[in-house]
Structure formats: structure tokens, C-alpha cells
Amino acid sequence: MADGDRHPIQAFSSPLSSNFSSSSSIANGILLNSLLSHLVTAQPTAHSKTSASLGQNLRGMYGQGPQQGHNNRLSGAPGRGQPNIPPVQYQQYNYGQQPQGHPHQHHAHHHQNLQPDPGVHGLPAGNMGHSSYSTGAHQASSPFAGGSHPSGQTATTRGGSGQAISDSWGEQLKLYKQAQEAHQTMVEQHLPHYYARAKASDNKGVVYASEGTTTTEDQEVARNRPSYTTNKLVKRQDWHNLDLSGQGVRKIARALFSYDFLVELYIASNKITVLPPDIGKLRCLKVLEASHNELHELPPEIGMCTNLQQLILFNNHITSLPYELGFLYKLEMLGLHGNPLMNGPLKDEIMNKDTKSLINSLLVDAPVPPAPAPRLPITVQDDVASSLERVSVLTWNILCERYATKQMYGYTPPSALEWDYRKQLILDEIYDRNPDIVCLQEISRNAYENEFSPSLAKHGYRGIQWSRPKVKTLPNNMVGGVDGCATFWKTDKWIVLQKEMLDYSHLTITRPDLKQNHDVYNRAMGKDNIGTIILLESRVTGSRLIVANTHLAWEPDLCDVKLLQIACLMENITRLGDKWTRTPPMAIDKKQAIQGILEEGEERQELPPPGPSQEYRNNTDIPLIICGDYNSTPSSGVYDFLATGRLSHDHPEWLGRKYGNFTRDGVEHPFSIRSAYAHLRGGPHELSFTNYTPTFREVIDYIWYSTNTLELVSLLAPPDKQALTRIPGFPYYHFPSDHIQIMAEYVIRPRKDKRAVVEPDFGPSSRRT
């Protein structure tokens, strides 16, 4: 293709995507047709900014002059509606021969503790200040001159004192010099898309890993949560990088930010005055190059791009930084040279330390945001008889204290990650909601024994906790930190008749039909997930209630193991129901004796004597509630099995493995159950997630209930979506876990007892007969 025929918008590939080939040209053509209708290029207008506007938008601790100091609120405004985009007008450039000697090798990952590579970022001798050309933006003069650099290259000293600059600042100056060279090439030589051209040259002959291969840096720490692609079909994407640099673009339309798969975005050497709040939608972004524009500020939504590793903003008009930059815990290079704010204390912060230090300061010093709108109950049915017995249930994965580390949750302010802070928020929420039954996952034995059990006992609860089976293999000084599942109930309403813990690994490998299958040993045996079942009886009515609580395997590639685990849970619930339909009613004095022993911290209270027990003919007649963290989305086999009561032997999520009768005949359960929040699906209050992190936002926690014995009355509303537009993930202030709590209230349906058969009366003669 001749230079004059090149598209003014180019998508390009890199080691982060696929190899540069003719197929990418097709993608470029499609992208061109899409983007040309959404981009407005430069029009000859003068730039102005009033002092009032400046005063309203200065944020953070690094504002200039009298604007310095802490801001006591979250700043910025919510995203605007879709603007009217006029037909695109773009300038024609004379595409000459690409200049030699200035290939730009842009490293997506800068390791701050390593010496710069002289072969990649060579520092020429001489002045490292701004170049002789200008974009019209205010440029801060560089106080650095040539000298000796620790890496053996030409280096810079500070203020003429002879003190060597830090490696991080030296790296920033190198990138600054390269950004100037790129700007000169695009503006003075009329060669836009500098970075696409450089990538195309750099990628020649490079062999890339096959699709689906993950690198070490992309692998997150193994934790009890699924990855972003759990139970989802991943659409193939052949390009991940986009170069819009050097085209005189003044405004970027919101439509661009629908490309949420972008990994690198280059918008340098334009005349962009505002970075839209929708930039926060690009959560896969690792590199954003926006140097040589006319930006005066960054939107707080930039903090949503937690994967960013390089944020290059050289030679703009930026005067302050939003606190939300503190969320960018993976950021290795924040390029700010040539901006007015570099005349203040920020320069010393970056020169003496590094980007990580600045980001951490913003995270730690950010003010606590105001509490979001309260989550109110949503009435599902309001014409419920007041005489019917009610039962409310809350379930919550509370994020075990040993999992809540800075390495795993780098976007969370340290004070919001502390266990004492999170624990109190969790307890306060339980006190405020006052449910009859509480099911918790990821609660350690220490937390249960020392904090939750004594605290909740003062509010009328009694509970039971089981830790994961690995607790049996640990020394005594470590068992307290192992997490598990805990269930609490109100003692003035319920009596416990039976408690049972299910070790899924043990149950599967001891089943006779599974003993000869290698798959169960290779995949299921090492998983220490558990389920719990308790049988409750109402003190007042004698109605019984089965409550199950579980936490299934988290790994996305173990969907077959999750099916095994949930099948084992439903088998044991069925067996328990069968047992209690055959068991005669318990004597009242025996039920009173069950409640005679007090737990630590529990005060004896005068309770009403229990009434007579109800009798049930079938296991499906006993009301049933199943809570937990299933680590499975609504499109999963686990969800299908619970909702339909059956899963075929050849379901795709068995992965073609052999699991005895389960994969020979399929699995079944006899209960008619439904997810409580399925009632909100498709409506304005639909629950869109229960686990909220930068890389995963899906529903994986549920409250299932038997529809023939329980009737749903109300649900706890989802969190306010507007409050989440600047929160990249939980835990955070006001959100003490990476999961949210969900809660449902039911009434127990009246029993439909079998009517006695009445003989027909045909008069005296028939009676004599």
C-alpha cells in the first residue's frame, strides 16, 4: 500500500496481541469505518479556561499555589449522555518516507528496580529539556543538564549540585525525550501514527505465544474467586492496540470507549482538551500515551483502569491529580514532565522516589468518601397474610482476614483493608438487618470464636462453624487461621435438631461408584471445600426448615469438580429430609434440653417453651434454603442443575471425564427450588454482581429456596450503581468484602394436609346395609 493510501487511523498488533499481518489491515478498514463517524478532528478555535473552572476542578494534594491541600470529597461529575456527533472531518497529510534512526520502542512494562537497558533507551549527551518545537501548551523548563549516570550512560544531575538522579526519574526523562521525537516526527514531518509504525517495524520476525497462553505477570494470585472469563465464551479479538496520534483530534467521542478490550491506546500529539470520564471503561488498558495535548486535568474515572502500567502525559497543562490515581496499584511509570504541576512539591516526590511512592501516597491520603445510598428492601409480594410465619436469611462471603493482603487488593486503601475495620462493618450490617438466619463463608475459626460468636450471642444468635478439612493437617498454632462456613440463627425463634458438615473431597473419593475412577483422585481429592446442613424447628409453630451453607471450588477450569460438590450437597440434603420424615416428632421436654447448654458469651434468656413438632410425609415437604458462594455464574452447569433438578451425563461441564454414576446416568435432585434474586432479572433492580473486583464482576452467590413450601416476600436491593462509577473494586470504604451481602425474606406456606375420605350418605337404607 502506498504511503498516500494509508488510513489516518491505524490499529496495530504487538506482543500483547497477535502478529502484524495482512489480516490486521482488514481489521483496520473495519475499525476505520466505525471510528470515522465518532471522531471530531481539530478545528481552528482558541483555547480558554476560566479561573472559576480551574478552581472547581483542582483536586488532590498536588494542586498549584493556594489550591494545595486535601480535598474533603470525591471530585468530578458523572458521565454525560451520548453527544451528537457531526460527520467527521479529517486533515490530509503528505505521507513521506518514514524517517530512519528513530524507531520508537515503547515498553509496556517498566520494572522500576532494574537498570534501564542502554540498547533500548539511549540517552544522548546534551540538554534533556524540552525540544525547540511546541504544541502551544505550557512547558516547564527542565533544570537538568548532562552528567554521569549510574548506568554508564550520559546522565543528569539535579540543580547543578552534582547529585545523581534516581533511576526512576532517569527513566522518565528517557521516555520524555522519545515522546518529543515522536511528536516532532508526526507534527513537523506530517507522519501521524508514529507508534503503529514503530510497532510494525519492531514486530517483524517476532514469534508470539499461541492464543490463550498467559504470562507470569498476567496470572493473578490464586485466591478463592473465579477469573473474569468464568463460565463465559471468550470472543476472539485479533487486535488490542490503537494509534490515533498526530491527527489533530480535538475531541474523542464516547463510542471509542466501547472498545473495552484495548490494551494500548496512543492519542499523543493531538489537541485534546478533555479526557472523557468514559476512559474508566477501558479496564484492560495497560498503556495510555496522551503526551503533547492540551489536557488540564484527569478525570477521577481514570482510577478505574487498574491494569495501567504506563500513563504518559508529557507536555500538557495538568495542574493537579485526582486521588483516584491511587487505585492504579500496577502503575510503573507516570509521565508528568512538562506539566505545570511539576513546578510544585510533586517534582521532588517523583525525583527522589518513584511512581509507586506517589500512587501509594494518593491512595493513603485520599479522604473517606461519603456513604452510598442505603440498600433498601424491595417488596416482591405485599399481599401476604400476617398470620403466616416469616423467616429472613442473609448470606455473605466476608473475605477471610488472611486473604485480604496488599498484594491481592492493591487498589484498596490500607485502612479499609484492615480486619478490625472490616469486621466491625460486617457485624454492624448484621445487627442492622437483624435476619433470622445468617450464613457466612470465608470466616476463620479465630474470627468465629473470638469475635463473631461472642458478639452475635449478645444479639440473640447462636451459631456453628466448620473449617476447611486441611485444618486436620496443621499444627495447633495455625488451625485458627483456616476459614470455613458458619451459620447463625435466632435462639428465640429456632431450635436446632441436627447439624452436619460435608467434606466434599472425602465424600467423592469414598463413594463406591467413584473409587475406580482416576479423575476423582486427580481433580477432586485435593480440593478442601465444604458444605454444612442444619435442621431447624420453629419454637412457635413447630415448622421445620433445612438450611444449607456452602463454598464451592473457585477455579474456572474445575467446573466438573463444582458439579461433583453440588451433587454431593443435594444428595445429603435429600438424605437428611428422608430421615426426618421417618422420625417421630420429638418430645417437648427433649427439645428444651437441647437448648440448655450456653455458648461462651451467651446470656441465658427466658424463651417460650417449644410447641409440638409438625410432621412431614415427604422430604420435599420440608422448607429448604441453600445459601453460599457457588463460584458459578447463572450460565453455569451448577446453576442449571439446581434450577432444573437434573443435569445430563454428557453436559459439557463434565469435560468428558468419568465420575461413576454421575456421568453414566446424570444427576438429579427432587426439590423444586429457585434463586431468590431471579425475581429481579430483567428489571431495573436486577442484581448484576455479588463479587466486585477490577477483573471480575459477576453473580456467584445465591439464596435458593423451595418454591412449594416458601413464598418470597422481599429482597435486599443491589448497591447503588452510581456510587460504583469511581470504585474499581471491593473491599473499599463502606464495602468490607469483595462480595456483597444478599438477603431474602420468606413466609412459610400453609400446609396442604391430605383430606380424610368421607363415605357418601345414601339415607337410612344404606346405613342399615
Automatic annotation (TrEMBL):
<feature type="compositionally biased region" description="Polar residues">
    <location>
        <begin position="65"/>
        <end position="74"/>
    </location>
</feature>
<dbReference type="InterPro" id="IPR036691">
    <property type="entry name" value="Endo/exonu/phosph_ase_sf"/>
</dbReference>
<dbReference type="InterPro" id="IPR001611">
    <property type="entry name" value="Leu-rich_rpt"/>
</dbReference>
<feature type="compositionally biased region" description="Polar residues">
    <location>
        <begin position="150"/>
        <end position="166"/>
    </location>
</feature>
<dbReference type="Pfam" id="PF03372">
    <property type="entry name" value="Exo_endo_phos"/>
</dbReference>
<feature type="compositionally biased region" description="Low complexity">
    <location>
        <begin position="11"/>
        <end position="20"/>
    </location>
</feature>
<comment type="function">
    <text>Acts as a catalytic component of the CCR4-NOT core complex, which in the nucleus seems to be a general transcription factor, and in the cytoplasm the major mRNA deadenylase involved in mRNA turnover. Ccr4 has 3'-5' RNase activity with a strong preference for polyadenylated substrates and also low exonuclease activity towards single-stranded DNA.</text>
</comment>
<dbReference type="InterPro" id="IPR050410">
    <property type="entry name" value="CCR4/nocturin_mRNA_transcr"/>
</dbReference>
<feature type="region of interest" description="Disordered">
    <location>
        <begin position="47"/>
        <end position="166"/>
    </location>
</feature>
<feature type="compositionally biased region" description="Low complexity">
    <location>
        <begin position="87"/>
        <end position="102"/>
    </location>
</feature>
<feature type="compositionally biased region" description="Basic residues">
    <location>
        <begin position="103"/>
        <end position="112"/>
    </location>
</feature>
<keyword id="KW-0378">Hydrolase</keyword>
<feature type="domain" description="Endonuclease/exonuclease/phosphatase">
    <location>
        <begin position="394"/>
        <end position="498"/>
    </location>
</feature>
<dbReference type="GO" id="GO:0004535">
    <property type="term" value="F:poly(A)-specific ribonuclease activity"/>
</dbReference>
<feature type="compositionally biased region" description="Polar residues">
    <location>
        <begin position="47"/>
        <end position="56"/>
    </location>
</feature>
<dbReference type="InterPro" id="IPR005135">
    <property type="entry name" value="Endo/exonuclease/phosphatase"/>
</dbReference>
<feature type="region of interest" description="Disordered">
    <location>
        <begin position="1"/>
        <end position="20"/>
    </location>
</feature>
<dbReference type="InterPro" id="IPR032675">
    <property type="entry name" value="LRR_dom_sf"/>
</dbReference>
<feature type="domain" description="Endonuclease/exonuclease/phosphatase">
    <location>
        <begin position="617"/>
        <end position="739"/>
    </location>
</feature>
<protein>
    <recommendedName>
        <fullName>CCR4-Not complex 3'-5'-exoribonuclease subunit Ccr4</fullName>
    </recommendedName>
</protein>
<feature type="compositionally biased region" description="Polar residues">
    <location>
        <begin position="129"/>
        <end position="142"/>
    </location>
</feature>
